[in-house]
Amino acid sequence: MEMLLKNPYRRLEHISGLREFYTIASDLINEQRWPEPLATPTPQVLQIGTAGYLTSETFVTFVHEKNRQARVYISDLSEKPLADCRTHGLEQSNVMIMQADTTHFQFPPNFFDLIETDALLQFLPPAEKQQAIKEWFRVLKPGGVATTRDWFIPNRSTPGELEAYEKRRHIVKEQFGVLPEKTTTEEIFHLLKTAGFSLTVKQDSSLEPGKFFLHIAARKPEK
Ligand SMILES: C[S@@+](CC[C@H](N)C(=O)[O-])C[C@H]1O[C@@H](n2cnc3c(N)ncnc32)[C@H](O)[C@@H]1O
């Protein structure tokens, strides 16, 4: 992944792809007429699973274009991408960089207005996925939103769809060095709903196999 991003064209592609993802997430929130999580005076924002400075820099820029007062916490399980973020000067007075496991956060309850994590859930084994989602719910403020996206396979899929999904899992492994867990759409919806979230979802038809790529915004109810 890091090698690919040394190529300037791949870097631009990465940045514009992520910006498109964040814009879709923001549109999903607006379509539901949920209050904009970044519209509070000093929103608390958490990015989980940075993977590298380019991803976090793109996210921090996107957030600060919407609200310069937002306090952004960049987190990852692994120290290496966090060190990369520090080396590239991402740490500032309102940008904190910290090692954290999304299944067991040290953050207090009701702390964040927005959680963003891209391509993380599909890598977690089932029990960790459930624990991570519970943690997101716990640390979000009432009315706070978690935005994410991944490849998921519906339970009732044709053999051709399953084959395409398996191919995609291996492409993702080449990109990130880890084979994603086979994760069904139904499983992910169930986990989010039983944690207490309200959901809105968009299938992405611009990516192949498009029907498996889902953008999700999950809101913790006000009460
Ligand atoms: C596939 S990468 C995310 C890709 C990234 N969104 C990008 O644009 O390049 C997944 C990241 O999640 C991190 N991660 C894996 N398990 C985690 C956990 N339990 N808690 C926090 N981060 C985790 C990995 O270290 C990795 O940096």
Features:
alpha/beta, Rossmann fold, 7-stranded mixed β-sheet, 7 strands, binds S-adenosylmethionine
How do the strands of the widest beta sheet line up side by side? Answer: 3-2-1-4-5-7-6
- What is the averaged pLDDT score? 93
Assembly classification? single chain
Mind telling me which CATH architecture this is? 3-Layer(aba) Sandwich
Rg, nearest Å:
17 Å
Q: CATH top level?
A: Alpha Beta
Shape: globular
CATH fold-level assignment? Rossmann fold
Cα(first) to Cα(last) distance is 41 Å
Strand proportion? 15-25%
Short description:
With 223 residues, the protein is an alpha/beta fold. Helix content is 40%, strand content 22%.
How would you explain this protein's 3D organization?
The chain is of the alpha/beta class. It has a single domain (4-219), classed as Vaccinia Virus protein VP39 (Rossmann fold). The protein has six helices and seven strands, in the order αβαβαββαβααββ. The chain has helices spanning 8-31, 53-66, 79-87, 126-139, 159-176, 185-195, and strands at 44-48, 71-76, 95-99, 112-118, 140-151, 198-203, 213-219. A seven-stranded mixed β-sheet has the order 3-2-1-4-5-7-6, with helices on both faces. Strand 1, helix 2 (53-66) and strand 2 form a beta-alpha-beta unit. Helix 2 packs across helix 3. The protein is globular. The termini are far apart. The protein binds S-adenosylmethionine. S-adenosylmethionine is lined by residues 18, 48-51, 55, 76-78, 81, 101-103, 118-120, 123, 176. S-adenosylmethionine binds next to loops.
Per-chain topology:
Layout: H1 8-31, E1 44-48, H2 53-66, E2 71-76, H3 79-87, E3 95-99, E4 112-118, H4 126-139, E5 140-151, H5 159-176, H6 185-195, E6 198-203, E7 213-219
Helix pairs in contact: 1-2, 2-3
The structure holds S-adenosylmethionine.
